[in-house]
Every structure is written in structure tokens, then in C-alpha cells.
Specification:
Blueprint: H1 2-15, E1 19-25, E2 36-42, H2 45-61, E3 68-70, E4 77-81, E5 85-91, H3 92-98, E6 109-112
Helix pairs in contact: 1-2
């Protein structure tokens, strides 16, 4: 189930042209505040907001409730808390500055790319 949720979030990011989507498995870290981080970035504040909105919409469609969020006021770094998954949506230069994933460089990591769409029949 968690694999499905991670992929759902990644697809929601990629649908809005977010980039560099990864998940970090924090389950092996003592005292971790969540099981997974999903980290991505976007090229401008409008896109950061659009990515966040799309994740929220797709997660709600699947019955997941957003517990809390921060950062919507400026759209430089939005954090969405779904309990066992924390999503970090960065403006590109903020991600480059904070390098959040470097803090957990020793945990299992997965990169997500856009899935190929099936060819349309003509």
C-alpha cells in the first residue's frame, strides 16, 4: 500500500512537471518523525503551488487526509504531512541550498521518472 501511495505522489508531481522526485525510506532511523520523505522541486513558485495542489487532490481522491502543511504563503518550500509520508516540494534553488536528502544519504532511496503512456490507437 505504501508503495502505491509513494507512486501516486510521484505521479502527481510529474503530472505538473515537477522534477527530481525521490523517496527516502526512513523506517530504519531511530526517532524518525515519519516513515518516508518524498522530495521534489519545481522551477518557479507558481509551479511549486500547482504541484502541491495536485498532490493534495490525488491523495484526497484515494482517501488520504492531509494532517498539516506549511509553506503555501510563499511557495518556496511546501511541506505536506500525510502521517507516514512527508512531502517536501521545493523551489529548485531552495532544494539546492538546503540539500535535505544529503542529511539521510545512507537510507534507501528511490528515484521516480514519468511513466510511459500507452500508445493511442488510431
Amino acid at each position: 500500500m505504501i508503495t502505491h501511495d509513494l507512486r501516486l505522489i510521484a505521479d502527481a508531481v510529474l503530472d505538473k512537471k515537477g522534477e527530481n522526485v525521490i523517496s527516502l525510506d526512513l523506517r530504519g532511523i531511530d526517532g524518525a518523525i515519519t516513515d518516508y520523505f518524498v522530495i521534489c522541486d519545481a522551477s518557479n513558485t507558481t509551479q511549486v503551488g500547482a504541484v502541491a495542489d495536485n498532490i493534495l487532490e490525488k491523495m484526497e481522491e484515494e482517501g488520504h487526509r492531509l494532517l498539516r502543511s506549511q509553506g503555501e504563503g510563499n511557495n518556496f518550500w511546501i511541506i505536506q504531512d500525510y502521517g507516514n509520508i512527508l512531502v517536501h516540494i521545493f523551489l529548485k534553488e531552495y532544494r539546492d541550498f538546503y540539500r535535505l536528502e544529503d542529511l539521510w544519504s545512507d537510507v534507501p532511496r528511490k528515484e521516480y521518472k514519468e511513466r510511459k503512456k500507452p500508445a493511442q490507437k488510431q
